[in-house]
Amino acid sequence: MRLPHISKKILMIILIASITSSLTGIYVLSLTTLEPGLYITLRLYDVDKDKIFDVSYILQRGDVIWCVKTDVIAPFISENDFVNILNKCYRGSGAAFISYNKIKPVIDSWIKTYNLRNADVKGLISGMIISVFVMNISDKKILFKGFDVYSYKPYEYKDPKPVNIEITMIRGREHMYFTTKMIGKTGFSYISRSSEIRSDEEKYLWIEERIKYIIMPENLTKILPLDYFMNLYINEKVYMKTPILILENLGNYSGDVGIFINIHSPNIRSSFVSGDIFNRLLNSNSSSASDVYIRLGGYSWGCSECYFTDATLLSPKGFSWSSAWIYLWSRPLQIFSQLFVCDQTDCIWVEDRVYLLITDTYVYGSTIKGGSERGLPRDRIMYILYNNTISTEKLYIPDTGLEDGKLDPNEFVFLCQISTYFNKYGKPFEIGIPIGAFIGAAMCPALGLEIVNKTCVRIMNFVSAFYLMIPTSSMTPRSYLICGIQNYGKLENVPIGYNNSVYMYLRLSKYKYYQPPPLQCVWCPSQEHNMLAEIYFRSEPD
After folding, report:
1. Interval 129-188: pLDDT, tens
2. CA of 92: how far to CAs of 20, 27, 57, 160, 165, in Å?
3. Strand (E) or helix (H) holding 211
4. Is the pTM above the cut of 0.85?
5. CB atoms within 10 A of CB 302
6. pLDDT for 419-428, tens place per residue?
7. Are 345 and 255 in contact (CB under 8 A)?
8. CB neighbours (10 Å) of residue 279?
9. In the chain, where are the structural domains located?
10. Beta-sheet strands, E only, within 399-518
């Protein structure tokens, strides 16, 4: 029987109290001393329109178990950039426990590497991919399931101490909400461990993730140009040019257009898709992936007090400087996997998963390494990009240099002004990292498929749908992204360029991206985002 529903106001009080409290008395009645490590606990809710039901009590039922799999990003001690630190199932409403000794090598590797780079390891943000299933073992029905990136600062875990990661799950949604509670040096808490299901028990279960493909820079070096990869191998890892802006001047008689970008303390979001993916990709008659709906996940990498800045100048079409792209040196990783729940006799398929994230970006000192390159990425990449984006109309942005639909010589506009305008009409766009187009260009050769093959086209389109996100609004109190665009007209001592106006357009991904609502408003709808793939310009006469 369901408990009486909780009003929105009361739920918010409960959730805020849960976040601010460092103790919780839900699990046991006596105060205990905890061993250093991670203690993962669950809070379960049903949402019915504007009514919220706390159903965490089902964890105490004898026919209900819950399973947790945790993979921590560890590019310097793992071949595939991940280390598994937990994969177990439990009974009861206590905590799943991860010993500090399991995460310590990962923490040490981050601290060592960032110290060697003279970078601020205290501000480094990394992530763990956490998967959770709550299952009725009587009929093997999954009641709750979710997976997401839990973001954390490795430096805060350098000393052994107990930490509670409380996960809030909403039935029917795969996004999970994380609340971190540092229990303190004393280790005293009301948290107790759940009963772990042992391998010799009749009802022993586990989560099995079978990775079908994993694409990272090392897989792309024989397919993409060699200068897309960093010559310096850091801890024997390859970093590649990861685009954040692609720019193109299509105006034959335009002014010279200048673009600058300044990023301070960025956090980069991951992206996820789940469902019956591989069957549709391999067996569908369509070459389109237009119904892909991508969830934006937690931050897989970020830094504090680190900076990136670059600027470039675009000449009119027909000159070698009429296009450019701006990039960071990063380690993008795309994983294609299948999830199963297994017992001693069989494995039950749950879903296919594809996720894209950055495991590290090269920072030296306080500088995020990157730059700009003349021209466009290679033709195959741009073909995939153009085929999977849509162009906006000519931009008219009130109270900016574009209020009359054009940038006259010496007029400028900030990208945040354009983003604010789109947000006002409920169609926000973000700086998208279109790394999916780069990976898509390499997928078919990696799979041994001809480019003209319909399955190959479908796979390229699907992979190209994946973007990583750098929000254009403030990400943390001290983080920002500023991008400015100015029409210089004809510059002195530059033999090209005209004192003509330019018109500005955007290419946005045609696919749908959604960001789940915040914890304080779990009944609210998800917010749909558009991903910026390219900025381009035209001129008149043209």
Report:
1. 999 999 998 888 999 999 999 999 999 999 999 999 999 999 999 999 999 988 765 555
2. 24, 9, 9, 26, 17
3. strand 206-215
4. yes
5. 24
6. 878 776 566 6
7. no
8. 10
9. 8-204, 214-337+351-505
10. 412-414, 429-433, 468-470, 480-487, 502-509, 512-515
